[in-house]
Amino acid sequence: RMKSTFKAKVSGAWHLHDQTKDLALDNFVVFSSVSALIGLTKGTSYSSSNAYLDGLVLYRRAQGLAATAIQWGPVADVGMATKESFGTAESALKLLKPSQVQAAFTMSLAAANLPPSLLFARVDWSKFLDEMGTPVPVLADYAEKAAAGGGRDFDEEEDDDEELEAEMAALESVRKERGMDRGDKPRINNE
Fold first, then answer.
1. At what angle do helices 12-20 and 44-62 cross, to 10 degrees?
2. C-alpha separations of 6 from 46, 73, 116 in Å
3. How far, in Å, CA of 106 to CA of 181, rounded?
């Protein structure tokens, strides 16, 4: 099972890197997972292959190439989240709506300078950190915010679609400037 998981993500990402390393790309985006950051006890091969994607991004960055990894949380109605217990009231990892994923991805591509990694996930951090049962250094900032009562109340479901749509509309001029108007494909800068 580990070999099949690795083959798709690792070999595919390396092939894309190899075929594009001599192009002046504006963006090279890989879809990673929150599991690369926090690990999954049921999916170590999945977590490891996503961590590889994050490492590939750092490798490309060290060579002066464009690269960003988006670490997605579980998404409703698609993928692994449909088979697991994500998004239930008991789960610390909440489901993202497909419309939220689309909006987040669109806004990310419109950003002037993407960081090496972005995390888009709905997480009840205080519950998550309690479930971990041990301090996790990379999550120290989240632990402080959770302890101070920061973040959203996940007992109340909110419809964020209108807010995301408003943010997307505000970025319309940026998308047009970068060649990312709604129907356009990303442009390759060959200057």
1. 10
2. 8, 19, 21
3. 10
**How far is Cα 36 from Cα 33, in angstroms, rounded to an integer?**
6
% of the chain with per-residue pLDDT over 70: 62
Measured CA angle at 61 (ends 56, 164), to 5 deg: 85
Which residues face 25 on adjacent strands?
Answer: 188
Q: What is the pTM of this model?
A: 0.71
In this predicted model, what pLDDT tens digit does every residue of 74-106 receive, in sequence order?
898 887 766 665 556 677 888 888 988 998 898
Other Cβ atoms less than 10 A from the Cβ of 143: the count is 17
Return the pLDDT at 86: 58
Task: Report yes or no: 131 and 90 within 8 Å, Cβ to Cβ.
Answer: no
Confidence of residue 38 (pLDDT cuts 50, 70, 90): confident
CB-based burial label for 105 (10 Å; 0-12, 13-18, 19+)? middle
Which candidate, 16, 24, 107, places its Cα nearest to that of 57?
Answer: 16
Give Cα 94 distance to the centre of its chain. Answer: 14
3-state percent breakdown (helix, strand, coil) of the chain, nearest 5: 50, 10, 40
